[in-house]
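wait is this the right file?? whatever heres the structure
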């Protein structure tokens, strides 16, 4: 893997393997990424309790949910998965990966989500587009691993931190994506603070793909791993 390949790669498993082999990701980011991937199944009428459990998995990733609480959310959701006939399916396998209390098998989550889409009628072009979208979100969460960003103290002033907290907490649900208007407010606050790093501002301006929890810029502002 080199920088050019990283920026153009649309194979999630290859990208994830590179990040893990170089220690450039974290258990938190991998779980949040798995949650994002599972939410790609929303158009296929995933039960509400299941989506609520995914929110609990995000809280668990951020250290705001206990292992016992995660297990309770999982058990309640499994009842609905069974009710709607999902228990013997790739949907169930993907959900199980998201809700695992220990290490996330994130590549398996991606494979299960794509398999579920295919089994529920999504065609080859749709699956290809999903791979591209998922790969873009890996870049959203990890940036360019060949270029480290450094935020100076002025770029983490009180206003910027509060805006980043709002971006993180006030998402578009149930998709779990960041609000583009709040991201633009963050860009303007950076510029007012005299921060002009185009790797950062350009990323926040890039609205052609989803920005989600784990976004490398928002994480840097909030000092999240």
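ok assuming it is, sequence goes like this
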């Amino acid at each position: 893997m080199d920088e050019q390949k990283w920026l153009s790669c649309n194979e999630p498993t290859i990208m994830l393997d590179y990040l893990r082999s170089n220690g450039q990701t974290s258990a938190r980011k991998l779980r949040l990424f798995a949650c994002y991937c599972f939410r790609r199944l929303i158009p296929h009428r995933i039960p509400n309790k299941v989506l609520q459990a995914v929110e609990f998995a995000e809280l668990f990733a951020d250290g705001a949910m206990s292992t016992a609480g995660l297990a309770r959310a999982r058990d309640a959701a499994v009842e609905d998965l069974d009710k709607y006939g999902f228990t013997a399916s790739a949907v169930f396998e993907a959900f199980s990966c998201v809700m695992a209390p220990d290490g996330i098998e994130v590549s398996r989550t991606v494979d299960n989500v794509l398999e579920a889409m295919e089994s529920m009628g999504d065609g080859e072009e749709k699956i290809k587009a999903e791979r591209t979208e998922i790969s873009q979100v890996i870049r959203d969460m990890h940036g360019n691993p060949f270029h480290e960003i450094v935020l100076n103290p002025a770029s983490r002033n009180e206003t910027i931190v509060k805006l980043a907290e709002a971006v993180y907490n006030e998402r578009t649900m149930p998709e779990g994506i960041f609000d583009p208007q709040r991201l633009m407010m963050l860009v303007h606050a950076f510029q007012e603070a005299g921060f002009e790093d185009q790797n950062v501002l350009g990323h926040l301006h890039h609205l052609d793909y989803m920005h989600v929890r784990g976004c490398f810029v928002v994480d840097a502002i909030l000092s999240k791993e």
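Residues 69 and 81 are 18 Å apart (CA to CA). so i think its the right one actually
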